[in-house]
C-alpha cells in the first residue's frame, strides 16, 4: 500500500510540476502578448509547443502573433492547429485563417475557411462581401497585369513603406534608424520619416526629413499639400515631451501638422 502511495504521490508531483511550468510560461507569453510584443510572445508560446504542452489557447495566441507579424506560413499552421483542437473556434480565427491561406495562394482552402466564418457571422460585412464574390482574387490574378513592382536601391531589410512623391522628392517611412529603440511588436526600430531625391530611375541623398517631425516614437505615413508647404503625418501621441496613452495603457496615434520653413519641417 505504501508503495502505491509513493507512486501516486510521485505522479501527482510530476503532473503538478508540468501544470505549474505551463501556467508560468503561458503567463509570461500572455504578458508580452497583451503588451503587443509579439516576437517575445512567440518565443514563450513556442516553448510550450516544443515540450508538447500546447493547447488550443496557445495555438490561437501563436497564430495571432504570427498574423500580426505577417508571417503567413506560421500563422496558417497555427490557425489550423487551433481550429482542429478547439470545439468552438472563434469566428475571427476562421477569417484570419482564410486570409493566410489566401496569401499563401491556397484559394480553395481559403474559401472553405471563409465559408466557416460566414456560417458563424453571417451578418458581418466581410462575410457578405465574400458571398457576393468569393473568387475575386483568382480572377484578378488571372487578368492582364497592370503594374510592375520593382525593388528600389533605397530599400533595406527593415520596414520601408508609405512612399509619397512631391516633385523630385520622395518621402517615405522606414525602421532603418538603428539608433532608435526597438519596437516590441516586431523587434525593429521605431519608424521615422525619410526623404530621397529622384535622379532618373534611382534615388540619392537618402536622409531623415529635416526639422522636428521625427521623435523617439513612431512617425508616418505622410501626406503633403499640393503647394509642398504643409505636411500631415501620423505619430504616436507624443508632443513636447508628453506621451499620452489610452485608458487601456496602449499608445494612441494622432495626425499632426507641420509647416515647411526655410527647407525644414
Amino acid at each position: 500500500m505504501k508503495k502505491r502511495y509513493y507512486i501516486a504521490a510521485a505522479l501527482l508531483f510530476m503532473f503538478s510540476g508540468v501544470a505549474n511550468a505551463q501556467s508560468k510560461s503561458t503567463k509570461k507569453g500572455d504578458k508580452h502578448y497583451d503588451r503587443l510584443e509579439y516576437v517575445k510572445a512567440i518565443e514563450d508560446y513556442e516553448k510550450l509547443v516544443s515540450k508538447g504542452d500546447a493547447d488550443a489557447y496557445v495555438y490561437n495566441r501563436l497564430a495571432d502573433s504570427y498574423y500580426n507579424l505577417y508571417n503567413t506560413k506560421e500563422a496558417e499552421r497555427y490557425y489550423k492547429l487551433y481550429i482542429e483542437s478547439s470545439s468552438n473556434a472563434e469566428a475571427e480565427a476562421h477569417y484570419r485563417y482564410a486570409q493566410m491561406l489566401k496569401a499563401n495562394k491556397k484559394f480553395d482552402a481559403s474559401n472553405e475557411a471563409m465559408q466557416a466564418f460566414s456560417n458563424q457571422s453571417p451578418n458581418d460585412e466581410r462575410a457578405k462581401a465574400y458571398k457576393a464574390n468569393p473568387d475575386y482574387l483568382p480572377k484578378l490574378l488571372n487578368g492582364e497585369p497592370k503594374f510592375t513592382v520593382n525593388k528600389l536601391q533605397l530599400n533595406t531589410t527593415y520596414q520601408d513603406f508609405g512612399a509619397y512623391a512631391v516633385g523630385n522628392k520622395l518621402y517615405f517611412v522606414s525602421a532603418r534608424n538603428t539608433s532608435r529603440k526597438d519596437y516590441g511588436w516586431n523587434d525593429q526600430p521605431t519608424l521615422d520619416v525619410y526623404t530621397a531625391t529622384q535622379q532618373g530611375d534611382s534615388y540619392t541623398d537618402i536622409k531623415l526629413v529635416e526639422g522636428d517631425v521625427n521623435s523617439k516614437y513612431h512617425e508616418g505615413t505622410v501626406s503633403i499639400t499640393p503647394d509642398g508647404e504643409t505636411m500631415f503625418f501620423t505619430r504616436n501621441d507624443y508632443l513636447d515631451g508628453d506621451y499620452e496613452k489610452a485608458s487601456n495603457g496602449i499608445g494612441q496615434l494622432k495626425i499632426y501638422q507641420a509647416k515647411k520653413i526655410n527647407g525644414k519641417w
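Residues 2-141 form a domain with the Serine Threonine Protein Phosphatase 5, Tetratricopeptide repeat fold (CATH 1.25.40.10). Residues 2-34 form the longest helix (33 residues).
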